[in-house]
Amino acid sequence: MIYCKYSLKKFNTFNININAIKIVKIKDLEKLCNLWKKYKKQNFPCLILGDGSNILFLKNFYGLVIINRIKGIYISESKKYWNLHVNSGEKWHDLVKFTIKHKIYGLENLALIPGRVGSAPIQNIGAYGSSIQNFCEYVDIINPINKKIKRINKKKCNFKYRDSIFKYNYKNYVIISIGLSLSKKWIPNLKYNDLKKLKYNITPQKIFNYICNIRKKKIPYPKIYGNAGSFFKNPIISPILGTKLLKIFSDMPFSLEKKKFKLSAGWLIDKCKFKGYISSNGAMVYSKQSLILLNRFNNSSGIDILELAIKIYYKVGKKFGVWLEPEVKIIDSHGEVNPYIFFKKNNI
Questions:
Q1: Residue 272 placed within a domain
Q2: Residue 183 φ then ψ, to 5°
Q3: Residue 263 contacts residue 233 (beta carbons within 8 Å)
Q4: How many distinct helices (H) and strands (E) make up the chain?
Q5: Domain range enclosing 181
Q6: Can you give the pLDDT at residue 136?
Q7: Domain CATH code at residue 29
Q8: CA 40 to CA 17: how far, in whole Å?
Q9: Is 213 found in the same domain as 77?
Q10: Which residues of the chain have pLDDT under 50?
């Protein structure tokens, strides 16, 4: 019998009430490596969490969960750039506030994105016309068993839309820090439609405040309604399928990226009449933004949320021929699993 007696409910923003064998907050890299090595020797899985803002737990976790709180922000400069070396346990939004306070600009479009710095390059976090790949110079990772550190430069990170090499490789490594380069010559990034309303006396602080206000209105506070922000990615489809859909749905919003159509997953879900939908177990599609799935009363299970996501996946796929890709990581009793085990087989 494996006893999982430590609750992870406050360590995941879906507020899923599951347990782990052991949960430890870590502020020191040496301690992280020693704990990892100890549990791996006993054949227990190890999981690193920041704020648990992009995961869905399905079952009790039969291993060690390390809560990363290794902090530190270090600044250097060249003639044209500010260079930041940031440890992975820093809260991302706090880093954005820190840069603005120190008159280092460029990250303001990425304000109020949840999670810690260590998870930022994995997902290539992005919002409002910007993403971390615009600023990331390198990612430092460590093998906790032999304590060897590798630096992965930006070209080898293979950053793409909500994607990077860290999703597929370096599974036995832990991200310990990142390097960011921010130009001293600040140019406001107003490419995103919502930001075009800002016309006069534009400053980084104004953009920061504006985006914080938008995000607070769009995304419910997780402690009230458990959620992980957008559950699905915005799909990128072929020009042939995009053109075909546009003929049928003339109001379909899209943008072109290297001749491919990037669609709004929220719009596709809306068209399938899921906005505000509530399942019998309390899992809900948020009424203000259909990309967000809610643990409405904070007593749904991970399976409940996943069942709703699968229902959306098949309805959208059958209506549009577009198969949504989950943005949220699915975690079972031994670690991360390929979501398509569930989505393609539809057999929970």
A1: yes
A2: -65, 140
A3: no
A4: 8, 19
A5: 73-218
A6: 98
A7: 3.30.43.10
A8: 25
A9: yes
A10: 347-348
Q: Are 269 and 293 in contact (CB under 8 A)?
A: no
Q: Tell me, yes or no, whether 83 and 62 share the same domain.
A: no
Q: Do 278 and 297 form a contact (C-beta atoms < 8 A)?
A: no
Nearest to residue 86, comparing CAs of 97, 25, 78?
Answer: 97
pLDDT at 342: 85
Catalytic residue annotation = 162, 230, 327
pLDDT at site 345: 55
Residues 254 and 288 in one domain: yes
Q: Is-contact 299 282, C-beta < 8 A?
A: yes
Q: For residue 278, list its beta bridge partners.
A: 284
pTM over 0.70: yes
Distance CA 59, CA 43 (A): 18
User: Are 48 and 73 in contact, with CB atoms under 8 Å apart?
Assistant: no
Q: Are strands 254-257 and 81-87 parallel, antiparallel or unpaired?
A: unpaired
Q: Which residues of 254-275 are buried (b: 16+ CB within 10 A; e: fewer)?
A: beeeeebbbbbbbbbbbbbebe
Q: How many whole angstroms separate alpha carbon 313 and alpha carbon 165?
A: 25
Number of structural domains in the chain: 3
Distance CA 296, CA 328 (A): 17
Q: Are residues 121 and 187 in the same domain?
A: yes
Strand duo 283-285 + 329-332: pairing? unpaired
Q: Which helix (H) or strand (E) holds 265?
A: helix 265-271
